[in-house]
Amino acid sequence: MLIGEYKSKIGEKKRVSLPKKFREELGNNLILTRGYEDALIIVNEKLWKKIATEVINGSFINKDIRDTSRFLVGSAKEISTDEQGRFVIPESLFEHANLDKEIVFIGLVNWVEVWDKEKWNERVEYLKTHGEEIAQEISKMSRKENE
Question: Domain with 64 in it: what CATH number?
């Protein structure tokens, strides 16, 4: 299961090392793409195929599906890790996430997010401040789905 928070530094040529625990779960052939809130997302090929199937099965007539496809699929890059789990973050994705020198890998069960350390700290503060409101909204959504 992909869980936990791991800090890392960005090396020469925008190279980073995926934490060993995540490497063991995800494997070597990965997809790196844009995420929301200025993060990046890492998934393995199996989950990526599921995402791609959902996109393919969606109607290109639907603007939201097109926009989601552009955002997630249009920016996706296949990456391979070396023996130490290192890979290079492509420039377009590096810029999307406003990465600097330090990053944080966040395991979210099925995928891993990559955040600039300062952006992640800001997000954690936001979540601390708004956690109760977020929980209430999720609770409302769950009740509507069960009706």
Answer: 3.40.1550.20
The pTM of the full predicted model, rounded to 2 decimals, is 0.86
Spatial contact of 120 and 108, defined as CB atoms under 8 Å apart = no
Determine the residue type at 80.
Answer: S
DSSP of 81-109: --TT-EEEPPHHHHHHTT--SEEEEEEEE
Neighbours of 115 (CB within 10 A): 25
Residue 51 lies in a domain: yes
Q: What is the mean pLDDT of residues 50-71?
A: 78
For the cut 80, the answer to whether the pLDDT of residue 127 exceeds it is yes
77 pLDDT band, cuts 50/70/90, is very high
In a domain, 146, yes or no: no
CA separation for the pair 1, 95 (Å, rounded)? 29
